[in-house]
Amino acid sequence: MTDRKRILTGIRPTGALHLGHYAGALENWVRLQHDYECYFLIADYQVSDYADDIPRVREAVWEVALDWLAVGLDPEGSAFVIESLVPEHAELATLLGWFLPVSMLERNPTLKAEMAAMENPEDGSTERKSVPVAFYTYPVMQVANILMPRAHLVPVGEDQLPHIELTRETARRFNRRFKEVFPEPEALVGRVPRLVGIDGNAKMSKSRGNTIDLKDDAETVARKVRAMYGGPPRAANEPGRCDENPIFLYLRAFDPDTGGLAELEREYETRGVPNKVLKDRLTKVLNDLLDPFRERRAYYQAHMRLVRDALASGSERMRRIARETMDMVHDALDLNYLEKY
Ligand code: TRP
To answer: Going by CA atoms, what residue is nearest to atom 9 of ligand 1?
Structure first.
């Protein structure tokens, strides 16, 4: 039991989770949850870009927890953690910040892209947001998240890789300079690192409004799939290229009948297949995937007290390991001032 390696991973509470989260990360969490000692974090310290919309954050804490339960994460085996209920994260981030050069943040491609998007919103709004200090330093908080339970593995979406690299670098520096405290954690990216949006855009993302959410009902999924971008215009029976049609990217990601799909792809490229046929197939595939999620979600939604207890006990479990780690850190840095006399 105690010799299992540890996973820490997390999500910011900013809204409901979608298929991109599932294929990019969550699926791995579910698959690995019994082989590792897992800490799943709701990163509510890292919502500085939503600081003027706390009602949304409060709501999303529950949405995220429900989505986790819906996809089959087991809160008995794994700890569901609310970051701010373990304030040691803030302390560790402060201490680690002593040793991280600003240049490492300046070079972080994910952070750079996010800050650029904040200052130049592409959603048509003319409002330029200035970047909060806490946004600039959130990767350090994320490093603290991962190092707190001394995690070995971090299953995440592709965009998080620079932060994991920063974590490895931080662990190496700390261990070399002070004491061997932190394992150097590995990243693990999901089967589908980047799922296109239903509009054919490069990435499924809430701010682009091109998601299929894990909590969407069957009707909503059918409607979204009907409206999906189906590649360059083409007569119904004109052959097309599968790679140019996002419907195929989705089928490749989620259709369990790979043999049938391969045949369909051949047919599409030789004789042509109407998008309607592809969309009907995709709707069924997605609803088959989501049905068990919906069932579990409905159960927990009717028993929110269980969700609450999962968050409370998971956060408490994290708190215990956090105190252990902070003792090791204080000791390594020789910060136990009061022990002198
Ligand atoms: N930054 C991650 C995201 O935006 C969320 C996150 C916070 C995280 N802390 C983490 C992911 C620690 C992995 C490990 O999705």
So the answer is: 142
Taking the CA of residue 142 as reference, the ligand 1 atom at the shortest distance is: 9
How far, in Å, are 113, 120, 219, 297, 299 from residue 69 at the CA level?
Answer: 31, 36, 22, 7, 10
Cα–Cα dist 326/330, whole Å: 6
CB atoms within 10 A of CB 239: 13
Residue to mutate, 82, 114, 145, ligand 1, most ligand atoms under 8 Å from C-beta = 145
pLDDT in tens, 165-222: 999 999 999 999 999 999 999 999 999 989 999 998 888 988 889 999 999 999 999 9
Record the pTM: 0.95
User: Tell me: the pLDDT tens digits for 12-57?
Assistant: 999 999 999 999 999 999 999 999 999 999 999 999 999 999 999 9
For ligand 1, is residue 150 a contact (CB within 6 Å)?
A: no
Report the alpha-carbon angle 194-7-79, nearest 5: 110
Minimal CA–CA distance to 37: which of 61, 15, 4? 4
Q: Report the C-alpha gap between 151 and 145 in whole angstroms.
A: 9
Give the closest residue (by CA) to ligand 1 atom 2. 11
Q: Which of 7, 8, 11, 67 to mutate to test the pocket of ligand 1 (most atoms within 8 A of CB)?
A: 11
155 within 8 A of 28, measured Cβ to Cβ = yes
Q: Whose CA is nearest to atom 14 of ligand 1?
A: 9
